[in-house]
Amino acid sequence: MAEHTALAAAPRAAVRRAPSPGGRRGRGRGRERGLTFTAMLAPSLILVGLINAYPLVYGAIESTHAGTLIAGGPYVGIDNYTQVLSDPRFWAAARFTALFTVVGVLGSWAVGLGLALLLRSDVPGRSYFRVLLLLPWVVPVVVSSMSWIWLSNTYDSPLPTLARALGFGDVLFLSDPTLAVVTVFAFKIWISFPFMMMTSGASLEAVDHTLYEAASVDGASKFQQFVHITLPMIAKTTFVSWVLMTIFCVNDFPTIFLLTGGGPVDATTSLIVYAYRLTFQNFQLGPGLAVALLMTAALTVVSVILYRQIRRAQ
């Protein structure tokens, strides 16, 4: 009896194990479609790779030579890196760049998130305010920097005049090293918060309102709702915006150069301004490229760290 049962079950098991012709055709079509998409994308991917890889490879090679903008020089190995890393001006620029980046990222995020939360409520004319608050980001940085210079640089500018009227004496915001640093930080937050406001506002729109209603029923305060609902729900977008703003801050040349030129007494000299001076003012191409590549390495490390936070927030 058992033998008859086994014999009867064997054909059914064979039928279950046998691959269907339709399944094979479906998998074949999937592979063909994947190969077709890969072949179509390959030229663009190769072109983009070459466009990005060539300057990086060329810069890495030239950073090991003692050349200029006009002619190449002899191979010097890591001497350019040693020269840069032993220069106190490099470390001063690195400290300022790190502080500039932290203040720029967190400051613009705090202001942008606060305004996004405010505009999420029933504020009269909030659609008009959204457009007006984008102006610092839309206006060219040349125009914005010239406006801030007019406001704060000379003795008769509005801000020094206001400071004298309040009894603070003669305050020239771009001539004092400490005040110049504070002014550059404020200017960076001013031109960057609209980007953070847009990204935060978009992520807030995706948060389910019923979560806040349930939390209110449970007795959670507004602050508790913000900490335990809002921040976790927008964490992924927050880390993405931090990655982008970190890159923007580290590579931000026009903001600093147009506003202060890196002064006074190098108080606002960032790494990119330092690299510009080495390359285009001192005509030291190798050390300038060495600084740029060190910046690239640091940005890569920071981006990887923040990218891991993005994956954890998913």
TrEMBL record:
List the Gene3D superfamilies: MetI-like (1.10.3720.10)
Q: Which residues cross the membrane?
A: 34-54, 96-119, 131-151, 171-191, 239-265, 285-307
Kindly give the membrane topology term recorded for this protein.
Answer: Multi-pass membrane protein
Q: Pfam families this protein is in?
A: BPD_transp_1
- A Gene Ontology cellular-component term: plasma membrane
User: Where is this chain's protein located in or outside the cell?
Assistant: Cell membrane
Q: Where is the composition biased (Low complexity)?
A: 8-22
Record region (Disordered): 1-30
PROSITE patterns to which the protein is assigned, alphabetical: ABC_TM1
User: Which BP terms does GO give this entry?
Assistant: transmembrane transport
Q: For this UniProt entry, what is the primary localization, expressed as one broad class?
A: membrane
Mind listing the UniProt keywords for this protein, alphabetically? Cell membrane, Membrane, Transmembrane, Transmembrane helix, Transport
Q: Which residues form the ABC transmembrane type-1 domain?
A: 94-306
In which family does this protein belong, per the annotation?
Belongs to the binding-protein-dependent transport system permease family.
Stated name of the protein: Carbohydrate ABC transporter membrane protein 1, CUT1 family
Give the organism's phylogenetic lineage: Bacteria, Bacillati, Actinomycetota, Actinomycetes, Cryptosporangiales
